[in-house]
Amino acid sequence: MTEEQGTVLTSDRGSLVKQLLKQVRNADIPFENRAQAVHALRVEFPSLPEAEEADEAYQEALRAQGTESYRGYVSNLSPKSKGGQQVIERLAKAVNAVLKPDAPAGDKPPKAPKAPKVPKNQCLCGCGTLVHNNFAPGHDAKVKAILLKVSRGLLPFEAIPQLLLPHLKDFAQRWGLPTDADGNLIVVPPKAEAPAEG
Known about the structure:
Layout: H1 11-25, H2 31-44, H3 49-63, H4 70-76, H5 82-99, E1 121-122, E2 130-131, H6 139-151, H7 168-174
Antiparallel strand pairs: 1-2
Helix pairs in contact: 1-2, 1-5, 2-3, 3-5
């Protein structure tokens, strides 16, 4: 545990740190002001390697002031440059991890895991299985076969599962079974067995 992680952070200190980070990320303010903000963060978090690394990079640029290389340093550390963004984001993540030690580094809090969906419907074939949609796996084929046999007169109408009856028209059309003009399943009554000759 670092010195900072063991420190109780006051809301005033947290506000100060957020303001300093905002200042470091603002490419529209003078470089010297951004360098002062980085140095202030190093003072606030002396044992953070990311704060030390960022501060040394900015201080090196300030030491080059008045030389030809100064503009190169400044542009490399700009929040708009890739290198500058990397330095700033490493610093921000490290500081945020200290401010919120239980949260992952970054600005967004972790998402709560979603509770698994509980099946609420009974399978329409009448088996009693709870399902998310209409049927347990493979049971729709079983019901389709029953409807096909009922429509051909091979099974009586009573063979159709009771739970399916309110949805009969819909499934008959969906499965391309023979229907009348209103979309109702065409049912052929089963043929009566011929009496045995004796």
